[in-house]
Specification:
Elements lengths: L2 H7 L1 H19 L3 H21 L4 E3 L4 E3 L1 H27 L6 H17 L4 H19 L6 H32 L4 H7 L6 H17 L9 H7 L2 H7 L2 H17 L4 H22 L6 H21 L3 H27 L1 E2 L2 E2 L9 H4 L1 H15 L5 H14 L4 H30 L11 H34 L5
Antiparallel strand pairs: 1-2, 3-4
Helix pairs in contact: 2-3, 2-5, 3-4, 3-5, 4-5, 4-11, 4-12, 4-15, 4-20, 5-6, 5-12, 6-7, 7-9, 7-10, 9-12, 9-13, 10-14, 11-15, 12-14, 12-15, 13-14, 13-19, 14-15, 14-18, 14-19, 15-17, 15-18, 15-20, 17-19, 17-20, 18-19
Length: 479
C-alpha cells in the first residue's frame, strides 16, 4: 500500500493524536481552558468514532495496523465511553476545586492507545498501544493530587503496571526469537500445528501481561486498591473501555497469531477464568467499600469474558464482545451513580452510606438497583444477556473443561449474588443516616440513561449489537 493509503486507514488515530497535541497547547494559554479543552476532546472523540465507522478495511504500515470489523466495533464503543468519561469527570473535578485541563487530554491519549491496541497486527504496535494507554491511565489514577489515596493508587498502579509491561515485553521477545517475526500472520505460520516450547513460554508471558491489563486473577492485585483510591469518574473509565480494548487485543493475538495452538492456550485461559470468577465472587463478600466491591465484581466479570474467549471459536469471540460492551455500559453507569452521591460534601462510597437511599433519591437508587441486578445476571437486564451469550458459547464447545468451567461460572454468580442483594437491601429497607446532597445533573443524567439501557433499551439494542459483534468475530477468520 502507498503511504497515503496507510494514512487513510489510520484517520481515527490521527484525529486523536492531533487533537491531543493541539488541546494540550491550547489549554496552557487559552482563557476558560477547562471548558475549551473538554469540549474539544469530546468533539475529537466523536469525529474519531465517525471516522472509524466509515474506515476502509485493510492493513497499513507494513501490516502493523489493521482496520476491520473488529477494530471498528471496538473503537466506536471505546471512543463513546471515553467521551462520557470526560463529561462526567470534568464536572466532578470542578466541584472539588481542581482545575485539571490535562484530564481530557489524558483521556484522548488513553483512547488513542486503545485504538492502536484493537488494530494491532504486530507485536511492536501491540506494545506501543498498550504502553500509550497505560501511561495515560497511571497519571489519571493520581489526578486528584491533593488526595493521598489517589496518589497512592497512581503509584501502586504504576509500579505493578511496570511489572506487567516487563512480562509482556519479555513474552513478545521470546515469541519473536522463536517464531522469527513480530507479525501475527507470520507467527501463525510458525506455530501451525502447535507451538514449540520456546514460543509457548513466550505466549504464557504475553498472556500474563495482558491478564494484568484486564485485572484477571491471579494478576488482579492492583485492582481493589487502585479502584478505591482513584477519582470515582476515573475508576468508571478504568473499568470499561480499557478492558474492552485489552480483551479484543487478547482475542486478536490468540486467534490470528496462535490459531494453531488453540488447544494449548485454551488451558491457560480456562484457569485464568476460573480463578477470576472465584476471587471476584468470594473476596467481594467481605467488602464494605463500594469501589473495592465493584473492583472484585469486575475481576469476576472479566473471568466470564475470558471464558467466552477460551471457547476458541467465532461464537466465543462474539460472546466476549457482546459481554464487554454491555458490561461497559453497566459499570460506567454505576460509577456515575457514585459520582452523583455525597452527604455534606463527603463522597458516599460505603454500603452503609447507601442506607435509606431509595427514600431520599429514588431515581439514583433505582439506577443502582438496576446495575446490581444486571451484574448479578438477573433476567431481563443486560447482564443476563451478556452471561447468556458466554455460557451458550462455552456449553456449545466440545471441550469438557470449557463446559465444566461454565458450570463453575454459574456457581460463582450465585455466590456473588449475596453482595449485590445486600446493597439493594440496604438502599431500600434500612433507615437513612443523614440527608444526601442534590446530585449534579450530568452525573444523574448519565446514570439514569445507562440504567435505562440496562433495561429495557438493551432488548432493542441487542438487535444491532449482536450482528455487529458477529461480524467483528468473523474478521478474525474463525470457524
Amino acid at each position: 500500500m502507498t503511504f497515503s493509503a496507510d494514512l487513510a486507514l489510520a484517520v481515527p488515530e490521527l484525529i486523536l493524536a492531533g487533537s491531543a497535541l493541539f488541546l494540550l497547547v491550547a489549554g496552557a494559554f487559552a482563557p476558560k481552558r477547562t471548558l475549551l479543552v473538554g469540549t474539544g476532546a469530546v468533539l475529537a472523540l466523536a469525529a474519531a468514532a465517525a471516522a472509524a465507522a466509515v474506515s476502509p478495511v485493510g492493513k497499513a504500515f507494513g501490516g502493523g495496523l489493521v482496520s476491520d470489523a473488529a477494530s471498528t466495533f471496538a473503537q466506536v464503543a471505546i471512543y463513546a465511553a471515553s467521551a462520557v468519561s470526560i463529561v462526567l469527570g470534568q464536572r466532578w473535578f470542578a466541584r472539588r476545586g481542581v482545575d485539571n485541563f490535562e484530564f481530557p487530554v489524558l483521556i484522548l491519549l488513553a483512547a488513542l492507545g486503545m485504538g492502536m491496541m484493537v488494530g494491532a497486527a504486530d507485536l511492536i504496535s501491540l506494545y506501543v498501544g498498550v504502553e500509550l494507554q497505560s501511561l495515560a491511565l497511571y497519571v489519571l489514577a493520581a489526578m486528584h493530587r491533593d488526595n493521598a489515596k489517589a496518589s497512592e493508587a497512581g503509584l501502586k498502579y504504576f509500579v505493578l503496571g511496570a511489572l506487567s509491561s516487563g512480562l509482556l515485553l519479555y513474552g513478545a521477545s521470546l515469541i519473536y526469537g522463536f517464531a522469527g517475526s513480530t507479525r501475527f500472520a507470520v507467527i501463525a505460520t510458525a506455530v501451525h500445528g502447535g507451538a514449540g516450547t520456546g514460543v509457548l513460554f513466550g505466549l504464557v508471558f504475553l498472556i500474563c501481561g495482558l491478564a494484568f491489563k484486564v485485572s484477571a486473577a491471579p494478576f488482579h492485585m492492583w485492582t481493589p486498591d487502585v479502584y478505591e483510591g482513584a477519582p470515582t469518574p476515573v475508576v468508571g473509565f478504568f473499568a470499561g473501555a480499557p478492558k474492552l480494548a485489552a480483551m479484543l487485543l487478547f482475542a486478536r493475538i490468540l486467534t490470528e497469531g496462535f490459531a494453531g495452538a488453540v488447544d494449548q492456550w485454551r488451558q491457560v485461559l480456562v484457569i485464568v477464568a476460573l480463578l477470576s470468577i472465584a476471587v471476584g465472587a468470594f473476596a467481594g463478600l467481605a467488602q464494605k467499600n463500594l469501589k473495592r466491591l465493584w473492583a472484585y465484581s469486575s475481576i469476576a466479570n472479566v473471568g466470564y469474558a475470558v471464558l467466552g474467549l477460551a471457547s476458541g471459536n467465532a461464537e466465543g469471540v462474539q460472546a466476549m464482545l457482546v459481554f464487554m460492551v454491555l458490561y461497559m455500559v453497566d459499570v460506567t453507569g454505576f460509577f456515575a451513580c457514585l459520582s452523583a452521591l455525597s452527604r455534606d460534601g463527603k463522597a458516599m462510597e460505603t454500603i452503609d452510606d447507601m442506607a435509606g437511599l431509595f427514600k431520599e433519591r429514588p431515581g439514583i437508587a433505582l439506577a443502582m438497583t438496576a446495575f446490581s441486578l444486571s451484574a448479578l445476571g438477573l433476567p431481563p437486564f443486560s447482564g443476563f444477556w451478556a452471561k447468556f451469550y458466554v455460557f451458550k458459547a462455552a456449553i456449545n464447545t466440545p471441550d469438557v473443561a470449557i463446559q465444566g468451567a461454565a458450570i463453575a461460572g454459574l456457581v460463582g454468580s450465585v455466590v456473588a449474588a449475596f453482595y449485590y442483594l445486600r446493597l439493594i437491601k440496604v438502599m431500600w429497607f434500612d433507615n437513612a443516616v443523614g440527608r444526601t446532597d442534590a446530585p449534579p445533573m450530568e452525573a444523574k443524567t448519565i446514570a439514569i440513561s445507562a440504567a435505562l439501557f440496562t433495561f429495557p433499551v438493551v432488548l432493542g439494542a441487542l438487535v444491532f449489537i449482536d450482528p455487529l459483534a458477529k461480524a467483528a468475530a468473523a474478521a478474525f477468520g474463525l470457524a
